[in-house]
Amino acid sequence: MTINDNLKRFGAYAKALELFDHVVADLTPLMTIPALHRLVSQQFASADSIASNIEEGYGRGSHKEYAQFLIIARGSPKKPVDAMVDSNTGCPPISLPSVSPYVTR
To answer: How many distinct structural domains can be found in the chain?
Structure first.
């Protein structure tokens, strides 16, 4: 079994990939609103960062470094979510049905 096979079997990594797909599906329609381009792009990058940090930590080969990258991955979505909530875009609050189960405040 290869390293990639082990990583793909890791539940948090699979959920991170699934979350990215949901974020893209839910937020792509909002790219038609110019005032939201930056915030939506940040959400895409944040969702991608979760899986990327898990991958990088796994590739380090050290349990201590891997744990640190998991902590970083856990914090990845926090800042953009706060930015969307705090932003003054003039847009009404939006519901993101497929992402909601993954987001905790």
So the answer is: 1
Question: Exposure string (b/e) for 48-83, b if CB count within 10 Å is 16 or more?
Answer: bbbbbbbbebbeeeeeeebeebbebbeebbeebbee
The torsion defined by the Cα of 18, 22, 25 and 29, in degrees rounded to 10, comes to -150
State the residue range of the domain holding 31.
3-87
Q: Are 33 and 90 in contact (CB under 8 A)?
A: no
Question: 35 φ, ψ to 5°?
Answer: -65, -15
Helix (H, G, I), strand (E, B) or coil at 38: helix
pLDDT band at 105 (very low <50, low <70, confident <90, very high): very low
What pTM does this model have? Answer: 0.67
Residue 8 in domain: yes
